Amino acid sequence: MNNLNAAFTALSDPTRRAILARLAKGEATVNELVEPFAISQPAVSQHLKVLEQAGLIVRRVEGTKRPCSLNEEGMRAVEAWMSQQRATWESRLDRMEGYVNQLKQKESRDAKRNT
């Protein structure tokens, strides 16, 4: 996926995240996706357009139906970016934890010396 910005913009909307969660269970038509929402079919179609442009879903034509499904490549690109960020932050938090533990040990040694 070339445009992570579009993907994260698409993911910023709770309705679009709910649509993705539904599509994670399997392919669905627009009408099937409309059911759980208190919004119109055109509104859901607009959300689908945003998700498709972001590379997170694919739609195909099957007669009069247009089933939607997750785009594995697009979802993998988002996951890869998030994994990279997670690794960076886990490393930083591990270093911070080590530093805090050093401070606690020093504090404990100083307290023992002062008693």
Polypeptide structure, described:
Helix 1 runs antiparallel to helix 4 (41-53). It is built from five helices and two strands. A hairpin with an 8-residue loop joins strand 1 and strand 2. The model has no long low-confidence stretch (mean pLDDT 92). The chain has a two-stranded antiparallel ribbon. The chain has helices at residues 4-11, 14-23, 30-34, 41-53, 72-113; strands spanning 57-59, 68-70. It has a single domain (4-113), classed as Arc Repressor Mutant, subunit A, CATH 1.10.10.
Query: For this entry, what is the oligomeric state of its chains?
Result: single chain
- From the 3D structure, determine the CATH topology: Arc Repressor Mutant, subunit A
**Total domains:** 1
Number of helices: 5
How would you sum up the global shape?
Answer: elongated
Number of strands: 2
From the 3D coordinates, which CATH architecture would you assign? Orthogonal Bundle
- Determine the fraction of residues in helical runs and give it as a percent range: 55-70%
- Report how far apart the termini are: 62 Å
Poorly predicted residue ranges: none
Q: What is the mean predicted local confidence, pLDDT?
A: 92
Structural class of the helices, strands and pairings?
A: mainly alpha
What strand order characterises the main sheet? 1-2
As a percent range, the share of strand residues is 5-15%
